[in-house]
Amino acid sequence: MTRDMTQTDDRTPQTPGAIQGHAPADLAGMIACPRCDAVFRAIEPAPNQRAICTRCHHVLIAPRRRAGKRIIAVSMSVLILLVAASAYPFLSIATTGLSNSSSILDAALAFTSDGLLAALSFVLAGLIVFIPAARAVLSIYVLAPLVLDRDAFPGAPFAFRLSEHLRPWSMAEIFAIGCAVALIKVADLATVSFGPAFWMFALLVLLVVVQDNLACRYSIWKALGE
Amino acid sequence: MKSARQMGLVACQYCTRVWPGETKICGRCGHHIRSRDPVSLQKVWALWTVGMMCYIPANIYPMLATETLVSSQKNTIVGGALELGRHGAWGIAIVILVASVLIPVGKFMAIAALAFGVTSGSRLKPHTRQILHEIVEYVGRWSMIDVFVVAILSSLVQLGSVASIHPGRASLYFALSVFFTMLSAQAFDSRLIWDADAPPEPDGPPVKGFGPVSQITPDTTFDFPFSAGAATLTVASATERRAEPPFSDPQTRKDSPT
């Protein structure tokens, strides 16, 4: 099912003159690979099929069934979990009668004690909490009208572009692996226990991955462009 | 197969829309588009250098300062990992060494190799270099693990005089180094990898008429309406077929006439 079946079409019957001056409608039916710049005539694959660039094998189009609704659902869960996970204690340690617990925002803002490092705190808070939250909000803003067959909200193309731009800077899942490493580091220093936010965050990491894999950029841009 | 530049067109890298060559802003997504960024490699090298400059103090200064009742010590990145190893936690030591030494150093080398490959040619196939770029882009963010570990530890381990952990100066430099190498990898335009194979037409940009255009088809094609009309799906010309990857050889095509 997932074999990369690709081929080229050399529309020989058409003389170059037939497409001379390339009308805008002609260009609208084409797709350029963002990785290698090869141009193709786009043919919409059916849901769960993929269209792949013949030159660099980059996945160009990968529509999913009811992707819009599913992304909105996942984005809402991400938002709820992020708010809850930020408020509840995340990890707590105890040793010789002393104990301390910390939430995700505590961890992100751990650097505020030192002047120079304080800037890093806000960046970390952004990477762990605010950027994933912003991406969820932007996804809902862009997709909600499309799912309801309405006109896109004003600024939707900008919102989607921003969301795509933020994608590499959303580091919730890396933070989760960081937790695992930190746990083992303090394990022999003190007893560590998980707060409710820890499990919420574990779930959240899975949802962020699902959110990214559901989205077919080409389909969303096409819907926004109409 | 032709690139947008060869056809005198310009493609939007955000939304994959194709526009006439003189277009400056994509009409669909509003992104500023240009066929190739003339200073792409300069940006790559500038950000690469800043990233490298930050990586040096990141390894010299302490990453973590641990104070317990009996001792107080400051660890650098490598020192901290070796310390863990001495306590028997080699698995974690390896995770940290991979994330904060192997990946950053490998990333510096890979970005440099990609940039050199564009300016002075490369023995690697374009497809290999493309995969290298994708790996660098994907893996780059994971170097942040060590900074997050420091953040978690220093917020969690605050037990007064019994034990406390404070972040060291290196964490800032290390985070900056990761950011700048991520930006450097993003500044690299992977289309440059493929341009050596497909130089622009010698007689200037052919703005009028660009001849045949390749066509992508979905990966399973049996039940598709257009595959029934075989007349429109003529086999690619001989030169194009040679450039194609092996799996799209006509013999292996599922939709070839049976």
Question: How does this model look, in words?
Answer:
The complex is a heterodimer of chains A (226) and B (258). Chain A is mainly alpha-helical. Chain A has two domains: 16-61, no CATH class; 67-225. Helices cover 51% and strands 11% of the residues of chain A. Chain A is built from eight helices and seven strands. Chain A has helices at 24-28, 67-87, 104-108, 118-147, 156-166, 172-186, 196-214, 217-225, and strands at residues 30-32, 39-41, 51-52, 59-61, 91-95, 98-102, 191-194. In chain A, the strands form three sheets. Chain A has a three-stranded antiparallel β-sheet. A two-stranded antiparallel sheet of chain A has the order 1-2. A two-stranded antiparallel ribbon of chain A has the order 3-4. In chain A, helix 2 (67-87) runs antiparallel to helix 4 (118-147), helix 2 packs antiparallel against helix 7 and helix 4 crosses helix 5 (156-166). The radius of gyration of chain A is 23 Å and the shape is elongated. The relative contact order of chain A is 0.14. Mean pLDDT of chain A is 79; it is low at 1-20. Chain B has a domain at 40-195: Butyryl-CoA Dehydrogenase, subunit A, domain 3, CATH 1.20.140. Chain B is 47% helix and 9% strand. The longest helix of chain B has 31 residues, at 90-120. Chain B has helices spanning 40-60, 77-86, 90-120, 126-139, 145-156, 169-187, 191-195, 225-228, 238-243; strands at residues 9-11, 18-20, 64-68, 72-75, 158-159, 163-167, 214-215. Chain B starts with 8 loop residues before the first strand and ends in a 15-residue tail after the last helix. The radius of gyration of chain B is 25 Å and the shape is elongated. In chain B, strands 4-3-6-5 form a four-stranded antiparallel β-sheet. A two-stranded antiparallel sheet of chain B has the order 1-2. By secondary structure, chain B is an alpha+beta fold. Chain B has nine helices and seven strands, in the order ββαββααααββααβαα. In chain B, helix 1 packs antiparallel against helix 3 (90-120) and helix 2 packs antiparallel against helix 3 (90-120). At the A-B interface, strand 1, strand 2, strand 3, strand 5 and strand 6 of A face strand 2, helix 3, helix 4, helix 5 and strand 5 of B.
